[in-house]
TrEMBL record, chains A, B, C, D, E, F:
Regions annotated as coiled coil: none
Residue ranges occupied by any Carboxymuconolactone decarboxylase-like domain in the UniProt entry: 39-122
One of the record's GO molecular function terms: peroxiredoxin activity
Name the record gives this protein: 4-carboxymuconolactone decarboxylase
The organism of origin for this protein: Fictibacillus macauensis ZFHKF-1
Matches recorded under InterPro entries: 4CMD/NDH-1_regulator, AhpD-like, CMD-like
Pfam families reported for this sequence: CMD
Amino acid sequence: MNNNERYEKGIEKLMEFTTENDEASTHLKIVEHLKDIAPEVGQYIIEFAYGEIYTRGRLTNQQRALVTIASLVTQGTEPQLELHINTGLTAGLTPEEIVESFVQLIPYTGFPRILNALTVAKKVFSQRGVAVKGEEVHS
Amino acid sequence: MNNNERYEKGIEKLMEFTTENDEASTHLKIVEHLKDIAPEVGQYIIEFAYGEIYTRGRLTNQQRALVTIASLVTQGTEPQLELHINTGLTAGLTPEEIVESFVQLIPYTGFPRILNALTVAKKVFSQRGVAVKGEEVHS
Amino acid sequence: MNNNERYEKGIEKLMEFTTENDEASTHLKIVEHLKDIAPEVGQYIIEFAYGEIYTRGRLTNQQRALVTIASLVTQGTEPQLELHINTGLTAGLTPEEIVESFVQLIPYTGFPRILNALTVAKKVFSQRGVAVKGEEVHS
Amino acid sequence: MNNNERYEKGIEKLMEFTTENDEASTHLKIVEHLKDIAPEVGQYIIEFAYGEIYTRGRLTNQQRALVTIASLVTQGTEPQLELHINTGLTAGLTPEEIVESFVQLIPYTGFPRILNALTVAKKVFSQRGVAVKGEEVHS
Amino acid sequence: MNNNERYEKGIEKLMEFTTENDEASTHLKIVEHLKDIAPEVGQYIIEFAYGEIYTRGRLTNQQRALVTIASLVTQGTEPQLELHINTGLTAGLTPEEIVESFVQLIPYTGFPRILNALTVAKKVFSQRGVAVKGEEVHS
Amino acid sequence: MNNNERYEKGIEKLMEFTTENDEASTHLKIVEHLKDIAPEVGQYIIEFAYGEIYTRGRLTNQQRALVTIASLVTQGTEPQLELHINTGLTAGLTPEEIVESFVQLIPYTGFPRILNALTVAKKVFSQRGVAVKGEEVHS
């Protein structure tokens, strides 16, 4: 593949993670945001991350989103976590799956990272008008 | 639930992640290993991590294993990664899914963490006699 | 212990770390904050962290607060650091001990983490109307 | 050297990293900011970091700034990154070199840290009225 | 203070953290180990870390050791953790306090860091012939 | 560029960082090592890291090596640090510059990361038969 083809393929894949509306083009906004300072970085995200990595087989879009979210929670890089909770929802993860993946990480990262992640998720869910459905917990 | 019930429930869940043979009782070996120095820590892993967290709904065992592995790769805590590649395989993840989850993390953690994770996976796969099936990649 | 007993015991212990006034119920505010998105996480904090871990023997509340603060400074998880500077003060740590524990970490984490921690402490001390007493340093 | 001499030497070196104007005395503002809570920390930064470390030979000021920036990007400690992009520019690094050092880190830290670093750089460049000169990238 | 005085003061303080026997001079072994490659780093540890930081007031040697250990567990820097479990014991921390400080960190770092820290502690305790005294835990 | 061209370009650039002898083909050994488990990862390192990033302008090979080393020291990913001390030397960094870049990081990461990095450097320098030239330090 030449770079144009990888870019095309990346954009196409990226579209599977973005809605038409508000956050639709968050990634493209990042590309726009980087235009003056490091235009190639936006290009690498589309060509390499989306064009080469996300388009590989073996994992579904939802699995890729879950793995990505788990890494970002662990790193504590919150602006990217916000973006990928959005793309995860668009790719088909439910709010329950996203929150539950945070809960699963409590034994592996401790509570602080998870509390911060939940604050980010709460904001995203509210912006998108989605909610976690209640569930009976142990008693 | 009282502590005994949580412990029972934890052991039961843990068994879904362990085989009968070699690494079968790795977690129980950890409990044994901790006996003289911090017996309660082994107990907390079973009661809290397995008894309370892993037994919750909303995610399959495979999803929980994937999320856990992604966090351990990101942290670079290799002894635990080794254990959870084992439990992930037992819980039903394929070698391909595990390796692919590492590849998915390249754009989010960089290559060093992934290279170290692949070395650990290679060792585990060899011990268990499993292999990643070849796949045509871009050309 | 069943979960109710652990919850009770956790709340009781938590009260030793909270004052009646403003930040009094910060942890309970967290529980409130999590109610809609992940109510069990607030419960785990009280049952597991406070009910099981903090109620163990061998360390005083002040030692537990010091250890916790050192970990949060090292991680750079500032919202939780703010909370635990508050609980540490309520548990009996002096502002001097808290600041000194940051200074002790300079050789182990470098200056950036410590400067950020001092900014958080300055804010908390000001909110609570406490101050670090001056002390002659080397000359 | 006694502490006064180290302090003098540190201030002198620090001046090579600070302009007369706006951000000129950012480090000294930090010293001022710490005065009430931990005056010695400001002193250690000047005596130890600038007086002992930065004044050593073998690396130029620009090389020291580059190494420091690479570490801060990797840690994700953004307030300090902002400061050291400023001091790096004053020490003679070009905006292009700073941005390029971020790009070089993509394979080693992944995109999230780099995107956050670019946001910080964009702010600093705008405040100082400098810009990255465009450059043809691969096509 | 001039550098000689700081060095003297540092060595004196360091002695409070080292026994006469085996691990007695671990820090001095580090200085020896660094002699050919970076002799000043050993000097900075003694002059700055021990001569300036450890000799400050407000915290006891035990508190300093506890704070240091908590940071090293959180970072996962195990060679240094091994050293500081040793110096902590010499400074008067009990094996129980050290292990308990690990347990206290479970809610803040998760289990992996703590399991690795316990493995290091087990090795050190065995080398020094000390043991954690058993204690009834919840039932 | 198509993938073949990027691969070619990557290998060509990689050669500037590798000698003919012992560690000559360390990166290629990595590619070999990954062949059975994740052949594309070796390819991405050459195509993306070397073919796209390292071949950009604005920084010299030495500057790129310095920035990379600083990030790896900060992360504590030692196998990769060992590799990049080797490639840094081949690219023209002196042992003195490498060690000095570690010393520069003491105020930004603390001593533990630097001590571990020095141990790695000592091993690499010894394998390559190079040494840090002595230098008078403050007195």
